[in-house]
Amino acid sequence: MTKILATISRRTPRLKGVDMIRINGAFGHPSKYKKLLDAKYKGKPVILDIPGDRKKHRHLTVKDEELIDGAIDNGIDYIGVSYVETHWDVDIVRAYCNERPVKIIAKVETRKAINNLDSIIEAADGIMIDREDLSNAIGLERVPAIQEVVVKRCQKHGKPVIIASQFLRSMLNSSSPTKAEVSDIDRGVSQGADYLMLSEETAIGKYAQKTVDVMRRIINARKRRAQAVILAAGSARGLGGLTADRHQSLLDCGGQTILKHQLDNLTHCGILEEDIIVVAGKGLEKMRKELKDTMVHLVYNPWFETTNMLASLWLAREKFGSNLIVVYGDIVFDRAILKDLLQDKKDAVVVVEKKRPDEYEEKVCVCGDKVVLHPDYTNLPAPAHKSIPTGDAFGEFIGLAKFSGRGLSALLETMGSIINARQMGTYLLGAVERMVEQDIAVNILQTKGRPWNDNDTLDDFKRTRKVVFPKIKKRYLHKR
Fold it and tell me: What angle, rounded to 10 degrees, do the helices at 335-343 and 258-268 form?
């Protein structure tokens, strides 16, 4: 989750709640900060900015070398290189460091740096996008779009990214932020920035600690917001010609598509459109058309023919916050089930209908309110959850789940292991079984007779249209 990087001066009071410290080499040698850093911020990573000149080609001056040597001698973790324009600017600094223990952050603040972005990201250990200087180089109106590009490119390369400058400038002399500043911070968090940086606000501002507290509250509020991912990338073979050119989520289930029904349920229960992700495969252009007037994020699974639910979920992982709802793209369901799921405080919860399931369904064994493995789990043919004898199962997983906190961390770690092992045909419930195998608690939430249906076959879809969806629609018609 996004962390806070605060710039300090020797007059800055001790700041609580910051994750990383920045000192500016233009205002003194690192040795002058060592006592302060050891006393107030011991254990926090520190970055030293080496100043540069926009108008001059990057080369190391004697002062630069003194700052780098001072940074390394005084245990500074990162060196921030200003006005980087090509990967050579990073390479020059790295060569001087000569494998000494310090990492290099390239500051993106020129037009040329944007043009050479990928090679700079590859050369550096991380990127800082300095929006103030960048706006002078490319124009203020272009900065938001470039910010998003830089964050996405860094995520693609697996490098950390810092968004810097002007987040809470009004708090230099005011105890409260503006609404625009709050939105700006929220946007940086939603894009997936690793750090948001405070500059003058904490270095010389009148309300340094309050500025940190405000940023922390905004980040935490964003962190608590639920997100949803709809897995709609399957090949939908069981529905014949109805899904020849589209996923079944785009079929009309009774006046609206299954996808529209799911989006309505999610937004009605308080999940914002911009916090919803749809993973698509078959019929990508039709899915784009369906979502064109929304703020829903679309992720493409190009391997949809040969992968399963877990691979689609893995492809969307960079957009996850810390409270995730997972929805199979082929289900219709009573929104009251989703409401109960969102209110459940447990970290990993799967929704189950208690019944004697059919042989082909995703079956669950339960003890109390927790998922357990079948006694013969290790000997069952894969996928194990589909091979459980119907008489031994508690019920059927309906394709709706929640993962938050430790549950989400465990899911991500488990998914990573499965994907690294190239087990691309794994179901979501397969990952849940792995979690249970590692003694991670996965709880159940029962449907309690509330209507739902999946749509794997023509018979399923007929039942949805004739029985299940009319029942759901009737229940909520008067509440619209």
Answer: 40
